[in-house]
Specification:
The protein is mainly alpha-helical. Among the domains are: about 50-415, Up-down Bundle (Na+/H+ antiporter like fold); about 415-470 and about 630-685, no CATH class. It has 27 helices and no strands.
Length: about 675
């Protein structure tokens, strides 16, 4: 049970890290997870995790790289093949040589071969860490593709260099020719192995389908096992398992182009399943890294023959050395002119060079390599300064993550989406609306096609309205402020007219009470928009708790639901009354607005006049439609609710990724709350 509790605690840490990141999005999730991993290491648990580097690579790195290969932009990788290879091969070997000699010179107690092993462990960047950073930091797309391609490819070169350095240290024998031939065999063999095994898998699946075995669950299980099997088989053939799974993932990306019904259904299930798997594995990688840090640091801190300040100095010096080598390699290699496709090839883009240099984050592969250093040499003597080497590698991982998290957001391209200007709000509204339309389109089926299309048309109209807005942003902001103030006046007019209709006996007290509650909700959405959502959630929780704690309340609620089902005509009558009231109030408001035309800015008042006319027309049309349309209206309401949730999700995602400020996110949520209350609140009145 101890290991079971340990796993539960680590899964809980993943959940907590994402909750923390939701409130402090400027701190990258890997750093939060490493910190939580350190806390887990200090818990008084009966189980202690001893990391097996080989198991770590197959269990975590293989599926993560396989998924990255599946999701990679194949065209972008091909277009950037030259710079990717220069980083994944050339830079790795230059880093091993330069850092290796530098470490040996700086710390003479670390032999040259061991220094090369440390440099080889530090050479490859980490695909998981790069992915975490690129998701939050707005890097140019070409730099993002370059980093992802480099991280996919350089693990093999780094690990091969590491293995040869360790072999030279343990045996005392090294041959440059043998190492070069071995590298080519391992790298090319890994790619071929991955492609061949993937081809065999596709043929096997085709044979299964011919036999009528088209169970999506079975095919999904085979897909989950694929990266593990390919990695293990490749390692058995003594070729690169990492490049094998990367090649297999990219080949699967081509296979996704098939659009037969079986493939479409499998892709839907695959996306959901892999999203959960990758979410958990990504978190576990950095939490496990955090759990290893206390023991690694303790050994060096207490007894390494070197003062603790010196160790910190070495870590910082090596970290900045890696960044400097990367910067010089990119700058003098003229990768950036090729990357940015500048006409003047003699002037590398300095800013892009700095961004690419700082984005070379180290992570899981570096830690796994360092921890795989043997304890003893071939003659039985202890491996020199093993604990110090592992501590330096861990320190460089942390420093690279901290530097990237702190500096990259400052240097990354600032665009209009990151300011609080009205133009930024317009741009982000268009982004949100496009996202909603795209995702609603994926959910369309034969039953809700008409309703979904109506909602998507509404969003397309909202996009056109945004695009037509005046380019004078100061004027536009004044218009929005004026409309908000006028909307508050309109709510007062609606409340006034509702009381007048009640006094004249045209509506009953129950209807007036419900409609005034609706007006209160709109007023709250305008004045305290962000609190409205939480107030509604609290009200729902309160009602649910009351029903659960009081069985009689629950029974009465169920009786009311049963009564409504038995007498649907009563519900329709209530809706007719509410629609009639909304129609009368909209007509009354339109009349009052017409009286104010001469006194107000036309750009402020005319949109609200047209809006109220549309509401009145919609209520009038809804009251005379045949009953067969009621199903369509309910479907449309369901799709609208789904669209609202999609809006809320994309706004939060953009905020967490740092693409919009907190103030702009609040503004967009406020507009969403108003839309939700105004257009979707009618049902609650019935």
């Amino acid at each position: 049970m101890d290991i079971f509790y340990y796993v539960l605690i680590m899964l809980a840490a993943i959940l907590i890290s994402n909750v923390i990141n939701r409130f402090v999005p400027f701190v990258s999730i890997p750093l939060i997870q490493i910190g939580l991993g350190v806390l887990v290491a200090f818990l008084p648990l009966a189980f202690e995790l001893n990391l097996n580097p080989e198991l770590f690579l197959v269990l975590f790195i293989a599926p993560l790289l396989f998924n990255d290969g599946k999701r990679s932009d194949r065209q972008a990788l091909w277009n950037l093949r030259a710079p990717i290879l220069m980083l994944a091969l050339g830079l790795v070997f230059v880093t091993v040589l330069v850092v290796g000699y530098f470490v040996n010179w700086m710390i003479p107690t670390i032999p040259l071969a061991a220094a090369f092993a440390l440099a080889a462990a530090l050479a490859p960047t980490d695909a998981v860490a790069v992915g975490s950073l690129s998701g939050r930091i707005d890097l140019p797309k070409k730099i993002t593709h370059l980093l992802e391609g480099e991280a996919l490819m350089n693990d093999a070169s780094g690990l091969v260099a590491f293995q040869f350095a360790i072999a030279a240290m343990v045996t005392g024998v090294f041959s440059l020719w043998d190492a070069s031939v071995e590298f080519v065999v391992v790298a090319v063999g890994g790619i071929i192995c991955g492609l061949v095994l993937t081809f065999i898998k596709f043929r096997f699946l085709k044979w299964m389908r011919k036999l009528g075995m088209e169970d999506v669950t079975l095919h999904m299980l085979i897909q989950i096992l694929t990266p593990f099997v390919i990695y293990l088989v490749a390692e058995e053939f003594h070729v690169s398992g990492i490049l094998a799974v990367v090649a297999a993932g990219i080949m699967h990306a081509f296979e996704r182009k098939k659009m037969d019904p079986m493939s479409v259904k499998l892709n839907v299930v695959s996306q959901g399943t892999w999203s959960v798997i990758i979410f958990v594995l990504n978190g576990l990688v950095f939490i496990i890294l955090g759990t290893q840090l206390p023991d690694i640091i303790q050994v060096v801190w207490e007894n390494s023959g070197i003062s603790n300040l010196q160790v910190l100095f070495y870590i910082l010096l090596i970290t900045f050395g890696l960044i400097a080598i990367r910067f010089l390699w990119i700058h003098f290699g003229w990768l950036i002119p090729h990357l940015m496709k500048k006409e003047d090839m003699s002037k590398p883009n300095l800013r892009a060079t700095v961004l690419t240099s700082l984005s070379g984050v180290r992570g899981a592969v570096t830690l796994a390599s360092a921890l795989s250093i043997p304890f003893v040499l071939g003659d039985g003597s202890p491996f020199p300064q093993r604990s110090l080497i592992i501590c330096i590698a861990s320190g460089v991982i942390l420093c690279s993550l901290i530097i990237a998290t702190a500096i990259l957001p400052i240097l990354a391209r600032k665009d209009e989406t990151k300011s609080d200007s009205p133009r930024a709000e317009q741009t982000m509204k268009l982004t949100v609306y496009r996202y909603v339309i795209e995702n609603l389109g994926k959910e369309v089926d034969a039953e809700n096609k008409a309703a979904a299309q109506a909602v998507m048309d509404d969003y397309r109209q909202r996009m056109r309205d945004v695009q037509k807005q005046d380019l004078d942003m100061t004027k536009q902001r004044d218009i929005e402020i004026g409309q908000q103030q006028l909307r508050l006046e309109i709510l007062g007019w609606e409340r006034e007219n509702t009381q007048l209709l009640l006094k004249n006996g045209e509506i009953d007290e129950k209807t007036a009470y419900r409609y005034e509650k609706y007006i209160d909700a709109l007023e709250n959405a305008l004045t305290h928009k962000l609190k409205t959502r939480y107030r509604m959630m609290g009200m729902m929780a309160k009602r649910l708790t009351r029903q659960l704690l009081h069985p009689k309340e629950w029974k009465r609620a169920r009786e009311r639901i049963a009564e409504m089902k038995q007498d649907p005509e009563r519900g329709r009558e209530q809706m007719e009354i509410i629609r009639s009231l909304r129609e009368k109030n909209a007509a009354f408001v339109t009349e009052k607005l017409n009286e104010r035309i001469g006194d107000m800015n036309p750009a402020v008042i005319w949109p609200l006049i047209n809006e109220n006319k549309r509401v009145a027309e919609q209520m009038r049309r809804d009251r005379v439609v045949p009953k067969s349309r009621e199903k369509f209206e309910q479907q449309k309401k369901d799709v609208q609710l789904q669209a609202v949730q999609l809006e809320r999700d994309i706004i939060q995602e953009l905020f967490e990724k740092g693409k919009i400020s907190r103030d702009l996110a609040r503004e967009l949520r406020q507009n969403l709350s108003l839309y939700e209350t105004y257009y979707l609140g009618t049902e609650d009145l019935a």
